[in-house]
Amino acid sequence: MIGFTKNALEIISQRYLLKDAQGMAIETPKQLFERVAKCVAVVEKEDFMLWKQRFYKLMSNFYFLPNSPTLMNAGTRDGQLSACFVLPVEDSLNGIFTSLKNAALIHQSGGGTGFNFSKLRPKGSWIDASGGTSSGPLAFIKIFDVATEYVKQGGKRRGANMGILNVDHPDIEEFITSKSNSDAIKNFNLSVGITDAFMLAVQENKDWKLLDPASKEVRKTVKAAYLWQEIVNQAWNSGDPGLIFLDTINKHNPLPKSGEIQSTNPCGEVPLLDYESCNLGSINLSKMIKIVNGISSIDWEKLAETTRLAIRFLDNIIDANYYILPEIEQITKAHRKIGLGVMGWAEMLLLLKIPYASTKALLLAEELIKFIQGHSYKSSHDLAIEKGEFPEFRKSSHPQTFLLRNATCNSIAPTGSIAVIADASYSIEPLFALAYKRVGILNGITQTEINTPFINTMKQEKLWNKTLNEEVLKKGSVQHIKGVPEELKHLFRTSLEIPWKYHLLHQKAFQKFTDNAVSKTINLPENTTPETISDIYMNAWKYQLKGITIYRYGSKPGQVLQKCGPD
Ligand code: UDP
Prior knowledge:
The chain is an alpha/beta fold. It folds into two domains: 6-81 and 266-418, Alpha-Beta Barrel (Anaerobic Ribonucleotide-triphosphate Reductase Large Chain), CATH 3.20.70; 84-264, no CATH class. The chain is built from 20 helices and 23 strands. It is globular. It binds uridine-5'-diphosphate (UDP). Uridine-5'-diphosphate binds next to loops. Uridine-5'-diphosphate is lined by residues 67-68, 83-84, 111-112, 153, 157, 159-160, 265-267, 269, 280, 413-418.
């Protein structure tokens, strides 16, 4: 029996196991991994059984898991396996509703969609065809939002969306405040599409022109600093909007000849051209540790081998995939983008006894992701030699002497579900709390959990006792507990106890060697000020991050994770 936790088994049986018409599971968790391994191995020309076995072990050992749609849909009829899509939104009813329909189909299959709504004419613009005036991008975002609400992803979860409006669109003020009113948009992450020109205008306190997207006529002039303050205030208020740095993204666009990138997928880890899709997967770092003579260290050999197999796995999915639209199939197969990332970073640090909020952790983060990227590229190169480079390789900005099978190889995804399945900490995030209530996403049942590495360390240090257990359950923290040495308090600082600079510097460290992007939430305590959020957003741009998202504790009702403590 594969070692699933109770939580993992619950999530797997509710959402991932194939069911019959009566809703009864028709496979075991072991058969789930066999089904996925078979689907991924089938595209191999030789040694099918061998590859199937390797892919099976990769997953059942929890060394690596692919994104949810692959686990849910592999081996089924019309099995759509990717998590990330970007769709265009053209300035016509036909264009808008075509994308709405396509988004619904993607959501139904378990994928998430990103859109840039900036081509839409502003509210109140004249419409030739009807002789009326336009409702503007916000009205259409609301329609997409409502449609998303009613199309459940593969009957298992609601769709996720990214909605972007560029900072020079005339409706930008309405967009910035749109998550704060009562009929707020629910199924979208909203981000303002930021340019370097805007950031300079903010710094120099200059005027900023809002332009008609089609004619480029100036519709309104505002102070850049005023818009900036609006963004910051609303982010303080509700967590949205985040920022997407379009110039940085396009500076690293590997296929500039195929177009400019205008959007990312819902959580921001993959900038994509219109109709591109990407499949993701994450290495579980907590399993990449070896213990020799009682001393823990990173098992680099195992990490290299896991990376190599994971890249092959993700590349195979491009061929095993079912594509909802011919446009998506054409561009996805032309570029063959994949996104290998990580989960379990916080646990890896705990096992190495390195505090998240330390320079040592940041240096290790860089070393680790550089290693993963290096081996990802090496594997993609070897695959190019074995199976052929991606069709548009000659058009790409990659060095032409080093063939590649994939236009991109790495993304750091949030791993919201697969980390639960693998019993790993999320992505590159610190522990949210040492004990937390997890409100069931599907059934609303609240479960309380104490972090396992924490319990183990405390037992090793002979500090584990009933009082400690009770105190940690009450507060989710050890910072207030007498008798716990300072060193351990530092090691076990949780997300809200870690200064924001370390959150941001971790994102920076991982972004440095990630060709796509890093999805990270800068979690902030409730008493954080708007000035701090302004600093974070400004530094994110200076650090050349591709996007930034913050969340101030308590600023949104219905958080999935809630700190323990008095209700
Ligand atoms: N995603 C989605 N709906 C969800 C969660 C995720 O469509 O409810 C998509 C979205 O594109 C997101 C990506 O899956 O950016 C990766 O998210 P995550 O790593 O949390 O997915 P997991 O594979 O763990 O479900």
